[in-house]
Model the fold of this input.
Amino acid sequence: MQPYLFPYPGYFDLIQRTDCWVVFDTPQYIRHGWVNRNRILSPLGPGGTVLEPGWQYVGVPLRSHSRGTPIQDIEIDERRPWRRTLLGQLAHYRKHAPCYRETVELVERCLTPSSGRLTELVVHSLAEVCRHLGIPFAPVLFSALAMPTDAIDGPGDWALEISRHLGADEYLNPPGGAALFDPARFAEAGVRLTIQEFEPLSYHTGRYTHVPNLSILDALMWCPPNQVRAMLTDPRPDRELVSR
Done:
């Protein structure tokens, strides 16, 4: 998977089901994706004046780069006070979310890398969130695999060839990418292809209206990490998280 900044809970559901997580850091960076931004609740809520009522983006500003720049070469624009801005956007949770303090402390730990490389920051933040949730996380950068790519003809071949290279017997992917893959080719290679569905988490959000599939940070604001992990483990729709 490409590295995403504070992704939605389904990303961590995939992580907890894997033995090895390959950070796909060599594709071209695409603007307006999830690599350097995500969504949290908006203090204005539904009916407000934000771009999309009910939520807002939080993100990391980037230095100028050419169109074809791969994710691994994207640099953060450290000339801007983006850490302070991001933490400020979380401040509206303070009076309402029971896990505000511990979640902000988590975010502060996530934002510590200072090399200026976006990939380092995002992978570090994924590791910190997984540690907070109690989920094992063993990331491998694709750029560090030195893997031959001669057999890759199309976008659906990357996952299969990486799985072959690592000796995997199963590959997991969310439903959004299912159309890329040929199950017969995976079966021929002895790799089980699993398209992993994810049931959006449901939890109380105080005076706010719940918005599904926001950043994991939103779930962690309202519910302690053991409850969030419990829902990831048991995603039954009738099992609702209850904030303390």
Remarks:
- The longest helix spans residues 118-133.
- The chain has a mean pLDDT of 91.
- The longest strand covers residues 37-41.
- The chain has one domain: 9-233.
